[in-house]
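Usage

Read records sequentially. Each one opens with the input sequence:
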Amino acid sequence: MPERVDPWQRRREAALLLAAAALAYANSFAGAYQFDDFTVIADEPAVQSLAAWWDSMPGMRPLLKLSWALNHASGLGLAGMHASNLAVHAACALGCWSLLRLWLPQAGFDPARSGRAAWFAAMVFALHPAQTEAVTYLSGRSMALMALFSLATLSLGLRAARPSDWRWPASALCFAAALLVRETAWAALPALALLALARGEPVRQLAWRVAPLAAILLVAAAIFWTMPVYRALALGTLARHDAGALVATQVEAVFYLLTRPLLLLELNIDPDLRPQAGIDRDGALRAVALAAIAAVAAWQWRPRPWLAAALLWPFVMLAPGYSLFARADVANDRHLYLALLGPSVIAGAAIASLPRRVSAAATVFLCALLGLVTVGRNEDYRSESALWRATAACSPDKARVWNNLGFALMNDGDLDGARAALGRALALEPGYQKAFHNLAAVEARRRRNDCPPGCEPDGAPPAQR
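and closes with the structure output:
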């Protein structure tokens, strides 16, 4: 029998979910602007006011930029930026919970335990420290805001009973909004198909359910292609396209995401992953491991469709960034944001399947563990130098990491530390121009500091992130 939950219990569960997210991210408000934040938020003219945003249209990711323009218009500064990111994340956690309460019993999970499984899965989603790159890192909002509209797309799409149901066009509008936040939101279309198929939906019914999303995607693709910035990005990535190298690199990236940050083994804003020339022995083993996950999903499709869909979910969510196009950065932890829902479902189902007392103890323990690691990770974002020190510990052989650390230390006034970091960057990559310019800027500042009264030291070249 389905779990009977009174409205007050539902409200208490929602309040506890929100309180846990707020507690885990309370120290994120101390975070500073980091790396891409300067390019897309702090120094981007198009988001400094609503008028500037309007004048910049049409442009890339208009709804994302509108959210930043609204933050600037509020006058709340960094605190307002962080509050908005946390609010979006909390809304996503509630959206996951709502979606799973609907879908899990429909997809074959024990109805008597589905409520507990959905709630704990939402808790894992809210507290997992891999989410910090989409929450505490301000420009990571693109992933969380896209996820919010994507979750609305899925929830409304699954609830629509027929084309005349208002939720059918509403789902399509949310899908359009998600695409206007981030282009990779197209994954919501196959995700909706996956969830519908897992609950046993006939192909004919599935066809009308996804039809408006497919139409919007075609229109969006045509519009994006008319915009020079999108066309240049697409043609540039296709020009670098080497099928064997691309497959090898994508296998490396997806395997990294599903093992290191997902399993709490590494939280890294700039992982040291390099483009692969082809599949080597290690790459073949990673490919076999990923194929094994897909094989288990196929094996479980009939007896446990919810488990099969949860196993396949990360591949669907990662497909837009890890399939046809070569990425400048091989992998970023924030791309796990919505992909993490699949593993969260598996964790929630495992906890809900335990006896109630054991389940309660396991819930407290795992939530405390995830929350404490998240709090610790937020501390890395308190300054640029703190973040890049933490990153250098994880990626000691990546020149860009040491350049960014050197830049941050120079701004902190630690010129000796900056020179050492930039020297490390140049030792790893002797032709690295940014590190060369930054080292020259450090030396110019040292000369200025050592200059006696009356002298005029040489001007410092501009530093570069």
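Summary fields computed downstream for this record:
- The chain has two domains: 7-381, 384-450.
- The chain has 21 helices and no strands.
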